[in-house]
Design brief:
167 residues; alpha+beta; Cytidine Deaminase, domain 2; nine-stranded mixed sheet; two-stranded antiparallel sheet; 3 helices; binds zinc ion; JAB domain-containing protein
Length: 167
């Protein structure tokens, strides 16, 4: 999906898994992820975790972690292995009296119109299998397109690009 609004502004999406739920993505986080898009022909994939509030049935993404030296990245793969990702999630969780939680994962793809790979689906299934929470999965393409999906232990669904609401 391509957002009609300039990057850096908040986006509200309809959550395909939680009935009546919305997904609020803060513009600052979207902008920071967008700056990691694989715009050059040799740029490796990038990724991190999504952090924010669970306000049942809504998700509110307020922060993310970003690639670090210990991650394993190639042109077509990203393995989040640097301890800084989990450390940031834990730090924010503690500092907010357990209110800011691990909401999901983001990574980039070296394609203009990103779609989850079979490796992505397997990795996400492993995350979904160990939680009863709804998790958010974001892929940023090379240009301005995004793939955004939500899932729980029952399955995963893509956010309908037509169901973007103005905040
Ligand atoms: Zn991927």
């Amino acid at each position: 999906m391509v957002f009609a609004k300039p990057i850096g502004q908040d986006v509200v999406l309809v959550n395909p898994v939680n009935t009546g739920g919305l997904i609020l993505l803060e513009g600052e986080v979207l902008g920071a992820i967008a700056r990691h898009r694989q715009r050059s022909k040799i740029a490796p994939e990038q990724g991190g975790v999504l952090l924010g509030y669970r306000r049942d049935p809504h998700l509110h993404v307020v922060s993310a972690s970003f690639p670090a030296r210990g991650d394993h990245a190639t042109r077509i793969s990203f393995k989040r292995e640097d301890p800084s990702h989990a450390a940031k999630a834990l730090r924010m969780w503690k500092n907010t009296d357990r209110k800011i939680d691990y909401l999901g994962e983001w990574h980039t793809h070296p394609e203009m119109h990103p779609n989850p790979s079979s490796i992505d689906k397997h990795a996400w299934a492993a995350i979904r299998a160990v939680t009863h929470e709804v998790m958010l999965f974001v892929i940023a393409g090379t240009d301005e397109d995004w793939w955004i999906g939500c899932g729980d232990h029952n399955g995963i669904a893509q956010v309908d690009p037509k169901l973007v609401t103005a905040p």
